Amino acid sequence: MADISRRFFLRHLRSTPTNWVRHHAKGKVKREGVGLSFWYRPLTAVLSEVPVDDRELPLLFHARTSDFTDVTVQATVTYRVAEPAVAASRLDFSIHPQTGVAGSRPLDQVATLLAELAQQPALDLLARLPLAEALTAGISPVREAVSAALADDPRLADLGVAVVSARVVAIRPEPELERALQTPTRESVQAEADRATYARRAQAVEQERAIAENELQNKIELARREQQLVEQHGANSRRQAELDAAAQLAAAQGAAERERVAATAQAEQEKLLADARANAVRVVGLAEAEKEAARVGAYRDLPPGVLQSLTLREFAGQLPDIQSLTVTPDVLTQLLAKLSGGSESR
Fold first, then answer.
1. Phi, psi of 63 (to 5 degrees)
2. Which helix (H) or strand (E) holds 139?
3. Is the separation of the CB atoms in 80 and 156 below 8 Å?
4. CA 136/CA 189 separation, integer angstroms
5. What residues contact 141, with CB distance under 8 A and at least 6 apart?
């Protein structure tokens, strides 16, 4: 849509690079082209604006195959106005000179013509194809037929419209039929998935069996090694017992030898001590004998009175401690008698 501004009794139009504009005044063409900007008088001006950019026309129509099955065709046609002067002379592209609003919708007529021209070759082609072929390999033939029909149609050339491309997006049956057609594929995919699941389970079972066998082999190997360890431990214990017995025997023999040596040394020591004691006793005896002999020899030459005095002194030394002594005449008489008798006997 062109941009129209007001200045007093004049109007100014400014179009865009994708719009073609024609200005008529008094039945004559004043100016025409793309991206124009000019002043005009609205009371005498007749304006036409034709879009020249590429436009997308989505199409959705029904067709019937050779086996009487309804399908839906989804397509898209890209077109543009290649000759805007021709299109402006055949269709009403006029705009209001005061506001710039289009007076009609000529592009809807172009869209209707393109839809009819595109549907006819698609319907003819699908009517000769069965459903399976139409769904699997029908898109390319339908696209080529539609493109050829739109490119060769003279009505589009008379309107100045050029088709840029035609695309067929999809050919689809009714939803119930589509689900029915998808059922074998789904079942096949499900069966393949089940086979994969069973194969995976079988592989898992095989792996578990291998793991169990490996664990069993490990247990057997551990038991064998434990047996070897026990046997080795028994051998070590026996060897240790033998070594301990040998050590104890050696220790006992050493202790016995040490005791024998100690007993021998102690016996020799005791013998030496006994000899020393015997020698000491003998020496003491000899000394005492010599002493006694010397004393006796000394007493032998003494007078009797002296001997009696010494005897009394020795005797008094052997008596206990006497605090008091009562001497009666009888005792003294007997004592004197004994002393006198002893002395006479000598």
1. -140, 170
2. helix 139-152
3. no
4. 18
5. 125, 129
Burial class (CB within 10 angstroms; exposed 0-12, middle 13-18, buried 19+) of 47: buried
pLDDT tens digit sequence for 329-343: 776 677 677 666 654
Predicted TM-score (pTM) of the model is: 0.54
Residue of 126, 117, 121, 138 lying closest to 64 (CA atoms): 126
Question: Cβ of 106: how many Cβ atoms within 10 Å?
Answer: 21
pLDDT in tens, 42-68: 888 999 999 999 999 999 999 999 988
How far is residue 323 from each of residues 114, 312, 313, 320, measured CA to CA in Å?
177, 18, 17, 9
Q: What is the DSSP letter of 128?
A: T
Give me 305's structure tokens: 């009175």
Q: Give the tokens for residue 160.
A: 């100045």
Structure tokens at 57: 């026309």
What does the angle CA 28 – CA 33 – CA 36 come to, to the nearest 5 degrees?
100
The tokens describing 152, both together, are: 């060769």
Structure tokens at 296: 């006796």
Which amino acid appears at position 254 of this protein?
G
